[in-house]
């Protein structure tokens, strides 16, 4: 049996534009997905994901071609969920050269699902790490990140960046531009996360931005402008200029909003944070619903978000410095 965990993340800047080659700076946060894997005697896959729905579910099946998996929830939820887990297991089988290996998989996570905090990347990174270790293979971090990226790329219909998976693997703050990935120095920023209790469909939102880009030159310009914000943000990060980081986060949110990926609840939380005195606030991740991230050293933003009707949960998120971790 092998257990591995990997962190979620917030985007300081650059989501969506990073899919088209602009730079992005995600930061790993101290919220983790933990995956335990035990090899089976047969070639089946049994997945327990207690956090996936209110009641959790268990599914036992023999792969994507299995017409009759034994499940206790709706097929659409299972299909949506199994994409990442199934493809991660395929990567582990490939890495260990064990195409017929079967596994019992248990997933536990304290990262809200589909909310822009990178739960998919964390599950995939921890899943590949646990499954390869169970098969006696130790991947380098860069190979693990690359294999995890391939999973997100496949499940998100060929539209994914390396940002989430690289960040979840390495921990800390990272800079990703195309296939150039590096960890960067960052001060311990006072992240406050507001969560509307909802979710957005990453694949759909990415496809929406792509369609806009294909229709309007100014949508294309907007994506490039996000890249400019990120480049400016890197200077602010280097200088430790938190006020400037905040202004740039605000600008970044406006550009994401122009690309159609914000939501009323996200805007309400962003404005709740700004009016409380946050130095900056923006949606994080794919958008459509889920989380915003604000910078505030004081308790004012947390307090304001607690009383914002669209906000279901608010918490402080500290920068994670470990990345993927073998637990047992
Ligand atoms: N605890 C979990 N157990 C099983 N699958 C999970 C879990 N958390 C996330 N996932 C997978 O990741 C998907 C959400 O990923 P995504 O839409 O990219 O949003 P995000 O990465 O922002 O959380 C879920 O639909 C599910 O397939
Ligand atoms: C929108 C995007 O830039 C980030 C998606 O992040 P999340 O899955 O919503 O946490 C897509 C990607 O980079 O693959
Ligand atoms: Mg994701």
Automatic annotation (TrEMBL):
A Pfam family matched in the record: GHMP_kinases_C
Principal location class: cytoplasm
Pathway: Isoprenoid biosynthesis; isopentenyl diphosphate biosynthesis via mevalonate pathway; isopentenyl diphosphate from (R)-mevalonate: step 1/3
Binding site for ATP: 112-122
Cell compartments where the protein resides: Cytoplasm
Enzymatic reactions: (R)-mevalonate + ATP = (R)-5-phosphomevalonate + ADP + H(+)
Gene3D superfamilies for the chain: 3.30.230.10, GHMP kinase, C-terminal domain
Active site, renumbered: 164 (proton acceptor)
GHMP kinase N-terminal domain segment(s): 84-172
Domain Galactokinase N-terminal span(s) in chain numbering: 3-37
A single cellular component GO annotation: cytosol
GO biological processes: galactose metabolic process; isopentenyl diphosphate biosynthetic process, mevalonate pathway
Function summary: Catalyzes the phosphorylation of (R)-mevalonate (MVA) to (R)-mevalonate 5-phosphate (MVAP). Functions in the mevalonate (MVA) pathway leading to isopentenyl diphosphate (IPP), a key precursor for the biosynthesis of isoprenoid compounds such as archaeal membrane lipids.
Name listed for the protein in its UniProt record: Mevalonate kinase
Species, as recorded: Halanaeroarchaeum sulfurireducens
